[in-house]
Amino acid sequence: MRKKAISASVIKRLPRYYRFLGDLSLKGIERISSGNLARRMGVTASQIRQDLNCFGGFGQQGYGYNIEQLRLAIGDILGFSNAKKTILIGAGNLGRALAAHMDFAGKGYQLIGVFDKKPSLIGQVVSDLPIRDIAGLDEFCRENRPEMAILCIPREETQETARTLVSLGIRGFWNFTHYDLSVEFPDVAVENVHLGDSLMTLSYHLSHPKDTK
Ligand code: NAI
Fold first, then answer.
1. Which protein residue has the closest C-alpha to ligand 1 atom 43?
2. What value does the mean pLDDT of the chain take?
3. pLDDT at 147
4. Of all atoms in ligand 1, which is nearest to the CA of residue 118?
5. Which residues have a Cβ under 8 Å from the Cβ of 52 and sit 6 or more positions away?
6. For 76-97, what is the mean pLDDT?
7. 6 — pLDDT class (breaks 50, 70, 90)
8. Which tens digits make up the pLDDT trace of 149-181?
9. Average pLDDT of the segment spanning 82-105
10. Model-level pTM?
11. Cα of 179 from ligand 1 centre, angstroms
12. CA distances from 213 to 15, 42, 46, 91 (A)
């Protein structure tokens, strides 16, 4: 049982553990030592042990970790046991790509609705879901109670849309717009995604190849 708050940096590392363990499990590997896992992930064994100890530890001294058990336990910690009902706002290029290619179910979400305001998109189907008119958002949310919204709309549309969504019960945003929502909604979980930041970081490393990572 967990006693204290888990640091943000540990939480950020959990998805990577989950992903690596999933790959190992698919290869049919059953157990792994923290040292072996650390080598494969390019981190230290002590970091892995420290991170997992935040949750009570999983390994058995001398036996390593049972990969599938550890993967499921990390999935549990990440909250995958309850599929969180999710809606996508903005079915343009990015929104449609996410709806079509993201494995939401494998990450603890259930995509239940896709919305846009462009008449030519309404009624088209993406990921087996019809694109709905944003005018019906209110009714849909009252009936279906989604708790997470993916925002793929223009920046200037974000603030008002987010306010409406929060008033309709949304508790988390996966925010691809370049509008910072965290300040206005301190009680709502916000993950801002900026692919451009990652690209700029890569540019730094290409420009300073001798710097440590
Ligand atoms: P897009 O123009 O193809 O799609 C935007 C869609 O949002 C359109 O279909 C439009 O009708 C719809 N929309 C506009 N206002 C709306 C509202 N109030 N309610 C519902 N739907 C509405 O644009 P794209 O390329 O898909 O980009 C979407 C957003 O993601 C933009 O803000 C863009 O800057 C951002 N973006 C962010 C990236 C990142 O790494 N975070 C990467 C690429 C784009």
1. 94
2. 92
3. 98
4. 11
5. 17, 58, 59, 65, 70
6. 96
7. confident
8. 999 999 999 999 999 999 999 999 999 999 999
9. 97
10. 0.93
11. 12
12. 20, 12, 19, 37
Q: Is 131 in the pocket of ligand 1 (CB under 6 A)?
A: no
Cβ–ligand 1 contact at 116 (below 6 Å): yes
The reply to whether ligand 1 has any atom less than 6 angstroms from the CB of 175 is: no
Secondary structure (H, E, C), the chain: CCCCCCCHHHHHHHHHHHHHHHHHHHCCCCEECHHHHHHHHCCCHHHHHHHHHCCCCCCECCCEEEHHHHHHHHHHHCCCCCCEEEEEECCCHHHHHHHHHCCCHHHCEEEEEEEECCCCCCCCEECCEEEEEHHHHHHHHHHHCCCEEEECCCHHHHHHHHHHHHHCCCCEEEECCCCCCCCCCCCCEEEECCHHHHHHHHHHHHHCCCCCC
CB of residue 209 inside a 6 A radius of ligand 1: no
Edge-first strand order for the sheet with 109-116 is: 125-126, 129-133, 109-116, 84-89, 148-151, 172-175, 189-192
Q: Find all residues with CB under 8 Å of 137, minimum gap 6, and list them.
A: 87, 89, 115, 164, 165, 168
Which residue CA neighbors atom 21 of ligand 1 most closely?
A: 116
